[in-house]
Amino acid sequence: xxxxxxxxxxxxxxxxxxxxxxxxxxxxxxxxxxxxxxxxxxxxxxxxxxxxxxxxxxxxxxxxxxxxxxxxxxxxxxxxxxxxxxxxxxxxxxxxxxxxxxxxxxxxxxxxxxxxxxxxxxxxxxxxxxxxxxxxxxxx
Length: 140
Description:
Elements: E1 7-9, E2 22-24, H1 29-38, E3 41-45, H2 48-56, E4 60-64, H3 77-87, E5 92-93, H4 100-110, H5 119-132
Parallel strand pairs: 1-2, 3-4, 4-5
């Protein structure tokens, strides 16, 4: 992947501060989008908005769930969502932080995530194509 130095949006956790990369506690939506657009690889918690944006932008994506046992969330909904998204090939999952380096290496090899093909979307595309022909440049 690229040679861009890592950047971390570190949040409000005062007990943990990155020592080996640039970081900020929070970014404006515009700054977040700029950082995401310039990234080769995104490592994120399992927030659907961040995952959706990374996939839409064609970024390789590693996701780590926030967990109830650490007091990060009130239930393990992120774990359930991570499993579903990993099954669809949208994310490289990390269930144990010791596995993060392997997940990053896998994401670098596999490249960007893609939304799975939808049979309904294929039918709509076919119907539109039958009436109007395919769009200039083809379907995405």
